């Protein structure tokens, strides 16, 4: 019991050090503020994804069937809002079961049950339903759009983010085979361009600042009253977050890179913090990979901002501890 109390206190202390800066960055994010103006899936998805992260945190602190069920259910709700989340359950369920050695079967069943209760009915109703004539699936449209480097047709800036309007034969490619054939044909003509685009360019575009397909900056659709320009303090917060955007994204990716290193030395953290950090890095890597395959519009990454800010703050926290230990090493005890 004493060990359990100490572990919970360590988890709480670890979270308390990073929560205020993460919450401040989330509150200052102009993308998250502007997204509340629209009836778009990103608005609801941000809420459900944050609730999913909270449920994961609760399970990591105290693994049990109830918290596993809640995490699975919220992932199912997230998949209803954004279907790209569908395959993350294949990674999440075995991972949580592996981390609960004494209750692996219960954990696995609970996560899958929660997910299927929420997502299963929709899958049954929609499975095999024919698309309306002249329509293609959203996944195929996304993959098709992503085959254009920098989201432009032949490098023309006016086509950026609107490839479907300018690309010849875009709507004629209504099967995956036709899309892949088009991609291979274009890649043979400019192999280095497509290598850069798929190896790095898509991930950079996905995590970018400008909304690209929309009104520009942080706005998807035009607004009559852009508060960021009308109020000095709102404009200052907008400018601050724009200046901090890429440093924060790089810090978050650095946090993802070191999260899976052995948890010792400067990376030694309470077990719950280790598990939660690793699941969130896995989730972020999953979304980046999905949009490397499909269309990497930055708008789709907005719901990840709170998680990315949290990982950036965690990396700074770990780096600060490492620096403090180098500057002031612990005193040795003689005798």
SSE diagram, text form:
Elements: H1 2-28, H2 30-35, H3 41-61, H4 65-81, H5 88-98, H6 104-126, H7 138-145, H8 163-166, H9 176-189, H10 191-206, H11 227-230, H12 232-258, H13 271-293, H14 305-327
Helix pairs in contact: 1-14, 3-4, 3-13, 4-6, 5-6, 5-13, 9-10, 10-13, 12-13, 12-14
Structural account:
The protein is globular, with a radius of gyration of 22 Å. It is 67% helix and 0% strand. The protein has helices spanning 2-28, 30-35, 41-61, 65-81, 88-98, 104-126, 138-145, 163-166, 176-189, 191-206, 227-230, 232-258, 271-293, 305-327. The protein is built from 14 helices and no strands.
Key phrases:
67% helix, mainly alpha, 335 residues
Short summary:
The chain has helices spanning 2-28, 30-35, 41-61, 65-81, 88-98, 104-126, 138-145, 163-166, 176-189, 191-206, 227-230, 232-258, 271-293, 305-327. The protein is mostly helical.
Which spans have pLDDT < 50 for at least 5 consecutive residues? Answer: 4-8
Terminal residue distance: 33 Å
* Alpha-beta content class: mainly alpha
Basic shape: globular
Q: How many beta-strand runs?
A: 0
Helix count, per DSSP? 14
Let me know the average pLDDT. Answer: 86
SSE pattern, N- to C-terminal: HHHHHHHHHHHHHH
Percent range of helical residues = 55-70%
Oligomer: single chain
- β-sheet strand percentage: under 5%
| Major sheet details | none
Task: Give Rg in angstroms.
Answer: 22 Å
